[in-house]
Amino acid sequence: MAQNPDEKKRNEFLYFAMRNNKLKIGAAIILFFLVLAAIGPLLTDNEPTAFAGPMSDPPSAEFWFGTTFFGQDVFAQFVVGLRATFLVGAIGGGLATVIGMLVGFIAGYRGGIIDEALNVLTNIVLVIPTFALLLIIAAYLEVRGLFMESVLIGLTAWPWAARAIRAQTLSLRSREFVDLARMSAMKPLRIIFTEIAPNMMSYLVMAFILQFGGAILIAATLDFIGLGPTTGFSLGIMMQYAVLWGALPLGTWWWFVPPGAAIAAIVGALYFMNVGLDEVFNPKLRET
Amino acid sequence: MSLRVEDLTVYYQTLRGDVRALENATFSLADGEIMGMAGESGCGKTTLSNSLILLTPPMRYIKGRVVLDGQELPVSDIDGMNRYRFKEISVVPQYAMNAMNPTRKIGKMAEELLRSRGIDAHRVLPELKRRLDLVELDQDVLKMYPIELSGGMKQRMVMVLSTLMNPSLLLADEITSALDVSTQKAVAEMLVGFRDHKIVKSIIVITHDISILYQIADSILIMYAGQLAEKGPTETVIHSPRHPYTKLLITSLPKVGAKHDVTQLEGIPGKPPLLLDPPEGCRFRERCPVAFEKCVEVPPFLELDPDHFVACWKEIESNA
Amino acid sequence: MLKFDHVSKTYRVGTFGGKLLHAVNDVCLEVNDGEVVSLIGESGSGKSTIGKMILRLISITAGSITFNERDVSTLKGRDLKEYYREVQGVFQDPFSSYNPISKADRVFNIIRSNFYPGMDDRDWNERLHRSLEAVGMNPRHVMDKYPHQLSGGQLQRFLIARALLLDIQFLVADEIISMLDASTRIDVLNLLADLKERGLAILFITHDLSLGYYISENAAILYRGCIVEMGQTEKIYDNPIHPYTRMLMEAVPRLDRKWEGAKADLKAKQPNLSAGCVYYERCPMVDKTDDCRMMRPVLHEAEKEHFVACWRNGSS
Amino acid sequence: MRRYFSRKLLIYLITFFLAVTIDWLIPRLMPGDPIQNMLSRAALNANAAETMHTYYTHAFQLDLPVWQQYLSFWNALFHGDLGISTYLFPTPVAKVIKDAVPYDIFLLLPSILLSWWAGNKFGAFAARTKRLDNTVLPIAYLLTATPYMWLGILLAWVFGIILGWFPIAGAYSFTMGTQLTWVFVGSVLKHWFLPFASLFLVGFGGWAIGMRNMIIYELEADYSHYLEALGAPRRLIRRYAFRNAILPQLSGLALQLGVIVAGALVTEVVFSYPGIGYLILSAIQNQDYFLVQGCFLFIIIGVLLANFLIDIAYVIVDPRTRKGMVGE
C-alpha cells in the first residue's frame, strides 16, 4: 500500500492542513504579531506613557513608529497594546466559547424543555444589541481592568458559538454510536465529552477563532469610545487619544494607522485561518 | 437505437492516487432493451452510468468509446456532451428525492429548464400533463413545491421530467431503493411503461436488488470491483449463471420460503478488493472457489453462448 | 421474557409542534426465552421506535414494557445498568455505530470499564477472544483497526461480540443487515440463527419479508404503528389474511415468480382519522363496513397461532 | 403559520420586557447622583443647592420606593414620556431622540441594505473561479476584520484631510440652518458620504464571505447536479444556487443588526455625526440617566422591529418554511 492505512483518518487532516495556504498565511501573520507582542517591549526601553521624545515626530530610526502629540513613543504603546489585544481575545473569546459549549452541548444533547429554554435565552442575547448593553455596564464600572472587560465581552458574545455547537451536537446525538454509548451505561456528561465533543473538534476550534477575533473587535470599539480599561493600555485607547488630540488635522498618521492596521491584520488572519480550516474539514469547500 | 460501449475506462482521483473504478467496460444494448445493472457497493455501476452522461471531476476519463444511435458521444468533453444530455440521453438520479430545487414551483422549474435548453415550454406543456396522468400524478403538482410531495411522488415527477424530451437512452439509478414495497412495484412497472409507450427507447436500470431486475429487466449485467463479470438474458443469468461470482451471489439471496434450519445459505467469504491498488487479472480470483493460475491474466468478456457474455477463464476453457 | 402491554408513542411534529404523530399505537407483543420474533414493517411503520423503546433510548408515551416482570421504564441508575447487562441492541448503519475518531475495538473497552472494572487483563482477554470466536472472527485480523478498515459485515459482528461480552439474554437487531452487501449478509444472519440455538432471544426488525422468514419462528407485521397480523411465520407467509400483508406478499420482488396482481393504488391520501382502521384508506376490500372506519380492529385469533387485526378477516 | 408567528412574537416580547427592565435598572446603578451632577454645573450657593436638590429629586420621583419608580417608568413609557434630559435640560428626552433619529435612519438604512445586496452579489461572483476566489476574497476578509472606527478614521484622513473632498464632522456645515434648499441638501450629502462609505465597506466584506461559502454549498447540492446532468447552462444553475444561498443571508442580516448598530455608534463618534450613537455617548459622559435610558430603549425597539420584519420577509421568501408549516 502506498501509505500505511492505519493512521488514515489522522494524517488525512494533517495532509490537508499542510497544503492549505490560507491556513498557513493566516497562521504566519498571527505568529508574527504574537512574537512582536512578546519581545516588543524588550526592544524599546521607553515606557508607553513616558514623554520620551519630541512631540509628533514622524517615524525615525530612534522612534520606529514616531511619537505622539505628547512625545510618547508610539511603538512602545503599540506593543503593549498588542499584548492587551491578544489577552482580550484569549479571555473574552475563550469565555464566550466555553459558555457557548456548555449551552450548545446541554441544549443539543438534552433536548426537550431544557433545549427550549436555552434556545429562548440564546435568541434573546442574540437579538439584544449587546454592544449598547456593554456600553452602559462599562460606564457603570468605576474601575475597569482589562480582565473585567474581557469577561464582559465573553458574557455577551457566546450565542454565536452556542448556536453552531447546538446544531452540531443535535446531528451527532442522533448518530448510532451515541446510542451505543448510552447502552453501555455511560453517564451523559461522559458521553458528551468522550463521544460527541472529540468529533466536533473542528467546530470548537473554528468557533474559538471567530470568538477570539470578535472579542478583539468589540474591545477595540469599547476602548475607542473611552469605555476601555482605565488601567493599562490597548490599541483602541491609542486610537481614541489619536483622534481626541487632533492626530487627523495634524496629519500624524503614524499615531492612528499602526493600531488599527494591527487589529485588522490579526482579525483578518484569524478569519483567513478559519476559512482554511473549513476547507480542510469539509471537502465541499475545497476548490476541486 | 443502439448503444455500443467499447473499453470504457474511468478512474476516480483521490489523494492517494487513482481509484480504478471502471476497467475496460465493453457491452452493447439493443433498441427497446431494458438492461439491469447489478453488483455490490463499490463495483462501479454508478461510475459507469455517470460516465455516460456526466463525467465530471473527481471522475477522470482514461479511454474507451461510447456510440449512441451511430453517433459517438464525447463523454470526456463536459460541455460537448450538453448537446446530447436530456435530449438523447437522460438520467433518473440516485438522489431523485431531492433532485428538484426546493424553493421553486415544480412547473416553473420545468419551464425554465426547457427554455434554457432552447425548447418552447408552452408547446411541451400538454405532453407533460399527459405524462403526469400516465404516472398517476395530479396535474396541479406543477403548482406545488417539492417539499409538499411524498417520496414516491417526487420520484415519479423526476422520472417524467427526465424523459420529457423522449431520450433514446434512460439511466435509472437505484430508483426503487428508497421506496416502500408497494410504491416500489408501481414505480418499477411505470419504468417498463415508459419503454412500452415509446417515451424512451431503452433503459439501463442500476440497482443492488437483483430480484427487482428479475421482474422488469430483459437482460442483466453483473459487475464486480470495476470489471464486467457476466451479461445475459435475465432468465439465464438468474437461473443458470456461468460466472462463479454470479452463482454465489444468486445462491446467497434468501428466497421467501427458505428456512435457516432447513437450507443453510452460504455467504461469499472475504470482501471486495480496494480499487486503489486492485489485484492483477480477474479481481474476483482471491474469493473465487474455482480460481486457478490462468486467472492472473484479465479474462476477456466473451460471448460464450448467444447473447451471453462471461469474463472467466474457467468458463472459456470449458466452452472450448 | 419481554412483554409489550398496549404500548404507544406519540411525537409532536410540524415546524412548531402543532400536530401529533402516532408512531406506535397500542402494541401488544411478547418475546419468550430463546425465541426469535421478526418485526416486519415498511419505513415509517414505527418498528425502529419499538426497538428504541426496549433499549430505553426513547421514552414510552403510554402502556408498559416489562422484562422478566420488571417494568423497564422505571429502571434507574444501577438497575438500568443491570438491565443493559441482559438486553443489548445492534443498529442499521455499521459505520455510524462507531466513534469515527477512535479504533473499532474501543467499544469493548467501554464495556470493560463500565461493567467489568475489576477484571484483570488475562481473564478479560480470554473472555474477549471467546466472544470474538463465537462470532466467527479471528482477533489477530480485526483488533486494533479503524472502523473504515473493516467491512460492514465485520463491524456488525463486532457489535454482536460486544453484546456477548455481557451475559446477554435479549438482543434487538434493528435492520442490522439492510446496509450490508448481499454476500456478507448471510454470514450475519447465520450467526444470529446460531445464537438463537444457544438460547438468545432476538427481536429481528426488518422491512424485508424474505429475511424475516429465513430466521424467525414468529413474526409480526406492522403498519403505521399498529400490529396488523401476528403469529407463526409459516402461517403468515402461507396464508396471509390481512389485506396489507397480502399486498406485501404480492409486491415483494421474488426470484422464483414474476409480479402479477393489481397495480397498487398510488393516490393514497394520508389517513388523518385516528379512530378507525389505519389501513382503511388503502384497503382494496370492496365491502368495507362502518366498523372499519370507526373502530380500530383488535388482534383476534383467526386460526391457531395466527392473529389478525381486521374486522372482515380479509374475506373479500 | 399562526403558531409560528405567535411563538416568534413571544420571544420578542420577552426580549423587549427584559431589555426594558435592564434599561431601567442600569442607569439606577450609575455611580454618583445625577441631580448633584446637574446642579454642580449651576454653581449655586450651598443652601440654594440643597432646596433645588430636594425639589428635583422629587420632580424626578427619585424619592419614591424603587418598585413604584419602576411602575411609573412603564406607564410613562406608554405615554411616550421618557423623562427630561438632565444634560440638555429642560428638553424632554423624547424630543432629543426625535431630532437624532432621522440622521440615524438616513445613515443606517442605505449602508445596511446596500452593503448586504452588493456583498452578496460580489460573494457570488467571487465564488465562480479559483483564481477569483484567491485574489478577490482576501480583500473581503480584511474589510470585515477592519474595526469600524479605524476605517472611518482612514477615510476621514485620506478623503477629508489630504484630498479635502469631503467634510469630516457634523451632519451639515455649521454655517447654515436646517432649511430645505439644494445647497443644504448638497451639504448634508457631502457630510453623510464618508460615514456611509465606512459602514458600507465593513459590512460589504462580511456578506461577501458568507455568500461565497453558501453558494459553494448550493452548487454542490443535488438539484445542481441534476440540472447539470440534464445539460442546463451554468447560468441557470448559478441563478438557482444564488436564490437559495441568499435565504440564510437574510436571516443572517437579522442577527448581524447588533454588530452593525455598534459599528454605526462608533462611526458617528469618529465623524461626530449627530445620530443616536453620538447622543448616547455624550449622555454617558454626562451621566444623564434618562437620555441613556431613552437612547438604549430606542436602539432595542429598532433592532427588535427589524428582526421581526426580517422574520416575516423570510417566511414569505422561503417556500420551505411556509409550506413546511402547512404540510403534515
Describe the structure.
In chain B, 28% of the residues lie in helices and 24% in strands. Chain B has nine helices and twelve strands. Chain B has an eight-stranded mixed β-sheet with strand order 6-7-8-3-9-10-12-11, with helices on both faces. In chain B, helix 4 packs parallel to helix 5 (181-196). The model of chain B has no long low-confidence stretch (mean pLDDT 89). With 316 residues, chain C is of the alpha/beta class. Chain C has a single domain, classed as 3-Layer(aba) Sandwich (Rossmann fold), CATH 3.40.50.300. Chain C has helices at 47-54, 77-86, 106-115, 121-134, 139-142, 152-165, 182-197, 209-215, 233-238, 243-251, 290-294, and strands at residues 2-13, 19-31, 36-41, 62-67, 70-71, 87-90, 170-174, 201-206, 218-223, 226-232, 300-303, 306-308. Chain C has an eight-stranded mixed β-sheet, sandwiched between helices. Chain C has a four-stranded antiparallel β-sheet with strand order 2-1-4-5, covered by helices on one side. In chain C, a hairpin with a 2-residue loop joins strand 4 and strand 5 (70-71). Chain C is globular, with a radius of gyration of 21 Å. Chain D is mainly α. In chain D, helix 6 crosses helix 8 (182-219) and helix 7 packs across helix 8 (182-219). At the B-D interface, helix 2 and helix 4 of B face helix 9, helix 10 and helix 13 of D.
